[in-house]
Predict the structure.
Amino acid sequence: MAPSGRVSSGVTCIDTLLDGGWPQGRISEVFGPPSSGKTSLALTLLATATRRGEVVACVDVADALHPASLAAAGAELQRVLWVRPPSPTDGVRCTELLLQAGGFTLVVLDLGTRPPRRLRGHVWPRLLHGAERSHTALVVLASQRLTGSCAALGLRMQLRAACWQRGLWPLFDGFDTTVLLARNKLGPPGGRTSFRIGQPASSRHVPSPPRGGRAGWGGG
């Protein structure tokens, strides 16, 4: 099935690498070691979609989403459904239910830094089928490739260097991250780009619901 459109990543150089953004109706995969920029890219992606008036969901198995950081990235939190399942298996099931429900332009499934166990191979074809039926762009974040041939796109991310502002007192200015298009069913793979991950957003306290399968809208 051909994708119905593209969802912008919010980063110009990555949209160029992806020929316009993440394909709807397909699974895309972003993988790399901790601190390589996966979460920052996901925040930008979610924020960009909500500013366009789209409704999105984040299935946060990694417990990595910080509402203040998402708001600082420019997201309209009332358009974000935040789901915090207790395990990767529950996260996959939640993702499947969201795709079956429809209405989401984008669903991000963040599986964290450790390779999940007990995920059977048949889960990815099921999620691909759900994405196709709902015309949703499903983006999976993980430490390594997991989705196999079901992924239309695969981005490998690698932290390159810390950046500092020059001056009498050098100030930390973020990280440069290298992004490699490792898999591309929709065109030639092998492209490469880099982008800057800025300083962490404000760490002001925002109450978070307890773990254990809770879900809620970001603005709730």
Notes: Confidence is low (pLDDT under 50) at residues 199-210. The first helix runs from residue 12 to 17. The CA atoms of residues 165 and 171 lie 5 Å apart. The domain at 6-217 is CATH 3.40.50.300 (Rossmann fold).
